[in-house]
Amino acid sequence: MIMSIEADAKMSLRLVDGKGRVTASTQFAPPPLPTYSNCADILQPPVRVANGAVYFADSSGAVRRLAADGSVSQVTTFQLTNKQQALSFAVRPDGKQLIAIVLSTPPLHDPPPQALGDPVFGPGSWSLDLETATAGGTAAVVLHKNFGTSFPSPTVITGWDQYGPTATLNSAICTQNVLPSTKYTGTLIHLAMDGTHLDQIGGADCQAWDELVDGTVLCGSGDWQSFSVRRKNGDILWSRSGGYLQNVTLSPDGNGVASADGTVYIRNSSQAASFARTAQPAVQILGWADPGHVVTIGTDGRLGLSAPANNGLMIVDLGLTITSTCQSCLPYGVSLIGTI
């Protein structure tokens, strides 16, 4: 499932098969992009994959389900009432339950700031609402928190693995720098449906960059130049050192790690595969199509497939061009959301 922002600020979803054919698609207005400060928003994707379908949230918080046959159905609604709210949500792997966090800022300052030192927000408080819903039912607020006037590092919903909902604590919500992961920006935990913090995923020293539905987690180093793949209890399965890693993704079997800059690390190989060694055109790795193939996008928007190998990476052109106002902009560029 490929997600992209179009010129009219609509979000496009395309279900693409291994031959580059679009088998299902839809467009919608995504949730708001709040104004935080002099930085780029870090928002969770408003799209999730679960139970052989794609779930997406629109500007009103309505969550719909795009099936593989292209049909769209209503699932639930998380109430978004103004443009200064950020939504993060997840769907249980069987598609039967949903969980969401809505982060609300104070009202924006009037007049707007004219210089860096001017206030962004007027009087008011930051707040967080945790909501849950059964598919087809009405969402309910199960927890409300008031953070006061200080800029928060809140809890953010990141997904739902086979053990339950996942979230990051003390999350970054905006940045001025490139990050190794924009989905996981805090301590990754399992979150109970009432908001109780449960176990930390990957062990106490894990800086999570990606996670699989079975709990296998990719943990990064503080200098962003090495990683380890672990079980959820912290046991290390394998590790590597390399250059600076960007928007890294873990393969579905846990045996590969891809960096968006065009480098792939394989568990059974001591040498990283790289597009640079085969003089391929400049591409960005979006993620994994399956355990053996990564999906790429060129600067011209052309999608490709590549199988990591010790002698470098070769791209098979899928014959499909994804148009977008910006391929790698925050919070939403062109993204591979998942596979069904």
Word description of this protein:
The chain has strands at 2-5, 11-16, 22-28, 40-41, 47-50, 53-57, 62-67, 72-77, 85-91, 97-104, 126-134, 140-148, 156-161, 164-169, 174-175, 187-191, 197-200, 207-211, 217-220, 226-230, 236-241, 249-250, 256-259, 263-266, 273-274, 283-290, 293-298, 302-306, 315-321, 335-336. It has 3 domains: 31-200, no CATH class; 206-245, no CATH class; 247-340, no CATH class. The protein is mostly beta strands and 340 residues long. The radius of gyration is 20 Å and the shape is globular. Helix content is 0%, strand content 46%. It contains no helices and 30 strands.
Order of helices and strands: EEEEEEEEEEEEEEEEEEEEEEEEEEEEEE
Quote the distance from N terminus to C terminus: 8 Å
- What spatial order of strands do you see in the largest sheet? 3-2-1-30
Structural class, from secondary structure content? mainly beta
* Alpha plus pi helix count: 0
Number of strands: 30
Summed up, the domain count is: 3
The stretches of 5 or more residues where confidence is low (pLDDT under 50) are none
Portion of residues within helices: under 10%
Calculate Rg over CA atoms: 20 Å
Mean pLDDT: 93
Strand content: over 45%
Judging from the principal axes of the Cα atoms, what is the shape? globular
Largest sheet: 4 strands, antiparallel
